[in-house]
Design goal:
By secondary structure, the chain is of the alpha+beta class. It folds into two domains: about 230 residues, no CATH class; about 120 residues, no CATH class. It has an eight-stranded mixed sheet with strand order 3-2-8-9-10-11-1-12, sandwiched between helices. A four-stranded antiparallel sheet has the order 7-6-14-13, with no helix packed on it. The chain has a two-stranded antiparallel sheet with strand order 4-5. Strand 2 and strand 3 form a beta hairpin. The protein is globular, with a radius of gyration of 22 Å. The relative contact order is 0.16. Bound molecules: iron/sulfur cluster (2 copies).
Length: about 375
């Protein structure tokens, strides 16, 4: 069957697609159950997927539980995001080793074979696009990020259910994506006529689809996919208002910042789990002999006191100022910098905050006109 971008087909399961990717030499990264969560690790076959599992998420709460036994994708996002692979938490920038006549510098890039991200959710496509705008935007290019991104194929999975923490519908980043993928799967009717709608998003995706056991998609297949997306959107009770960015401006002295700071532990979980947060630090380490030194880039967070350290001390000493920096950058000044929100509504910062601080609730308090 000859496929082209924009076409849709039906496939009976994700297994032939994963098999075709592995057979074509792609490293396939996708969801797996690791330590009771959904993590993105290398898949060898479709059997590695956490089939039959679902998630229960709330503020400060995440559990993987038994779901519908036949369903392949009945969970949504876990604590990890794809930035683990495109923008690793620790990356060696270079090392230097003493030689007889100086130092030998090693700045070879870490190996990144051509890689298929399998199971990218719509909000995660949006998050990758947010990081694209940071790391490869025409005036600045992080060469390591750009190299990884160029070697990455995206196989999306459209959401048919939402967790209680999801609010992508109000951010226009989900639960259904129309672009930003090479291929996209929608799981249809896992309890009945179980099948997947396969959308072709690029020429590379079309080439991979050729040779798969497909049939043409019918009007009923498309209608079932639309219902699944509408069901996922209707499940969402959290939201951010569309005009949140201007409503957060000029609220530097709102008492809500102190109120949230009294709960916040400054643990930085929210920034580490967030798929768009991108701040980093650089660390130098030397061995005891002085013969070898290394420079590493590591994720950092605006919640750490040292993050705003300049000569003489940290600019944001007050925990309230650190929370304010995070929330207003994410939801307001990100628009000024990059032309979009820095939040895609994935809900990770809500589920993985140990004290259950909810960005949608805090933003609503601060944005109120009586502040
Ligand atoms: S701020 Fe929270 S909800 Fe928004 S993208 Fe980051 S982790 Fe997801
Ligand atoms: S908001 Fe929650 S996750 Fe973020 S630093 Fe504070 S306690 Fe940690």
């Amino acid at each position: 069957m000859q496929a082209a971008p924009g076409d849709s087909f039906v496939i009976s399961s994700p297994a032939p697609l994963i098999g075709a990717l592995v057979g074509a030499g792609w490293r396939v990264i996708g969801p797996q159950e690791v330590d009771g969560t959904i993590a993105y690790e290398e898949l060898r076959t479709a059997d590695d997927l956490p089939r039959g599992r679902t998630d229960d998420q709330e503020a400060g709460h995440y559990r993987l539980t038994e779901g519908r036994p036949e369903a392949w994708f009945d969970y949504v996002v876990g604590p990890q995001s794809w930035k683990k692979w495109l923008y690793p938490s620790r990356r060696k920038l270079w090392s230097a080793t003493k030689t007889a006549d100086g130092f030998e510098i090693d700045d070879r890039a870490e190996d990144y074979p051509k890689t298929a991200f399998f199971g990218v959710r719509p909000c995660e496509i949006a998050a990758i696009e947010r990081q694209d705008a940071v790391f490869d935007n025409g005036s600045f290019t992080d060469t390591d990020y750009a190299r990884r991104r160029a070697a990455t194929l995206i196989v999306a999975v459209q959401c048919a259910r939402s967790a209680a923490t999801c609010f992508c519908a109000s951010m226009n980043t989900g639960p259904h994506a129309e672009e930003g993928f090479d291929l996209a799967l929608t799981e249809l009717d896992p309890d009945g006529d179980h099948r997947f709608l396969l959308q072709i998003g690029s020429a590379q995706g079309a080439a991979l689809a050729d040779g798969l056991p497909l049939r043409d998609a019918t009007g009923d297949d498309h209608a079932t996919a639309r219902l699944a997306a509408a069901h996922a959107a209707a499940q969402q009770t959290r939201r951010l208002p569309a005009d949140i960015a201007p409503r957060l401006k000029g609220k530097e002295d709102h008492p809500g910042w102190q109120a949230v700071a009294e709960k916040c532990l400054h643990c930085a979980n929210c920034t580490l789990a967030c798929p768009t947060c991108f701040c980093s630090d650089v660390e130098d380490t030397n061995d005891l002999t002085g013969d070898h030194t290394e420079r590493w880039r590591v994720w950092d967070s605006c919640f750490s006191l040292d993050f705003s350290y300049i000569h003489g001390g940290a600019v944001r000493q007050d925990p309230a100022a650190r929370y304010r920096q995070w929330l207003t950058h994410k939801l307001s000044s990100w628009h000024d910098q990059f032309g979009s929100s820095g939040c895609v509504g994935c809900g990770r910062c809500i589920a993985w905050c140990p004290v259950g601080i909810d960005i949608t609730e805090e933003a609503a308090v601060i944005a109120r006109d009586d502040g």
